[in-house]
Design brief:
Blueprint lengths: L2 H30 L4 E9 L11 H7 L3 E8 L3 E7 L7 E2 L2 E2 H18 L3 E7 L3 E8 L4 H11 L8 H11 L5 E6 L7 H10 L1 E7 L11 E6 L6 E6 L9 H11 L2 E5 L5 H16 L1
Parallel strand pairs: 3-6, 3-8, 8-9, 9-12
Antiparallel strand pairs: 1-2, 4-5, 6-7, 10-11
Helix pairs in contact: 1-3, 1-4, 1-8, 3-4, 5-6
């Protein structure tokens, strides 16, 4: 992707993510991820249904009418995106790579966070750390992140353990952490368990979906884009490559971490909204 096309792609993602964040995702995000406290806003005349515990006794005594205090949610949550930019993320289908889908997901999540007054940071990685930007309310963090994702031309493997170690080292405060990856990585459960005790972690699994003609059958060879090793799979109707999904499901259940699997054929926005609505329901 040349620089002009890349700049155009980043601007499109920024515009699209802003529209989605402000229309479809804003309410779901705010309900799913509550702020860290409440700030006093003002006092007003008490109405039926108001919380008696919030009566403003001083103003009530002075005006001989019951007043109640109102509060605004204190946001400023830290939202960190760990984005895999390894060799396998350059794969995909339907004219779109996993890296492009990952960039779109990251832009939407970051846009929703920024719209709700939260701080956004990111870590891009393959087998090592590419870039680590601490959380900030600066809007230019988002295009910077998208440039790193779309600029990546890595042939490296995926090392989620290294990304989690970096996260634990640089982020000391409470944070919501989205891990965007195809999870073609091994031996990261220990680091994930440690991080899940400190942070609210959501796994977003970008799953490769390979469509084949239903009349085809038998075995086919695949070349792993990271390890260059040869793999064999059996073809059949609605065949899908699900290398990491089963293990991820077991890990997420054991550690009580949210997991959403995507493919390039899935409705990305619907899956994100479903995730956030489910988190809200669990809090009720």
């Amino acid at each position: 992707m040349n620089s002009e096309l890349k700049y155009s792609k980043i601007k499109q993602l920024e515009i699209k993510s802003t529209l989605i964040a402000q229309s479809q995702l804003a309410g779901a995000y705010k309900s799913a991820f509550k702020g860290v406290g409440l700030d006093y806003s003002q006092s007003r005349v008490f109405e039926e249904g108001d919380d008696y515990r919030r009566i403003d006794s001083r103003l009530t005594a002075r005006n001989h009418q019951i007043y109640t205090k109102t509060f605004d949610e204190e946001r400023l949550l830290n939202v960190i995106l760990l984005v895999d930019v390894s060799g396998s993320m350059q794969c995909g289908n339907a004219g779109s790579s996993n890296a492009e889908l990952s960039a779109e997901a990251a832009a939407i999540i970051a846009g929703a966070a920024h719209f709700n007054g939260d701080k956004v940071g990111f870590i891009t990685f393959d087998e090592s750390i590419i870039d680590a930007t601490p959380p900030s309310q600066r809007i230019d963090n988002i295009p910077k992140m998208l440039k790193h994702i779309l600029d990546a031309n890595s042939n490296g493997s995926t090392n989620i353990a290294v990304a989690l170690q970096k996260l634990l080292y640089i982020i000391q405060e409470r944070a919501i952490v989205f891990i965007l990856s195809d999870f073609q990585s091994q031996n990261f459960k220990k680091e994930l368990a440690v991080a899940s005790k400190k942070f609210d972690i959501i796994l977003l699994h970008l799953r490769e979906s390979i469509e084949v003609d239903s009349s085809m059958s038998g075995f086919v060879n695949f070349i792993d884009s990271e390890t260059k090793s040869r793999k064999v799979a059996h073809l059949g109707k609605n065949f899908e490559y699900r290398d990491a999904r089963g293990e991820l499901e077991m890990i997420s259940k054991e550690l009580n971490i949210d997991l959403v699997s995507f493919s390039t054929a899935d409705e990305l926005i619907a899956n994100l909204i479903n995730l956030m609505n489910e988190r809200t329901r669990r809090k009720v």
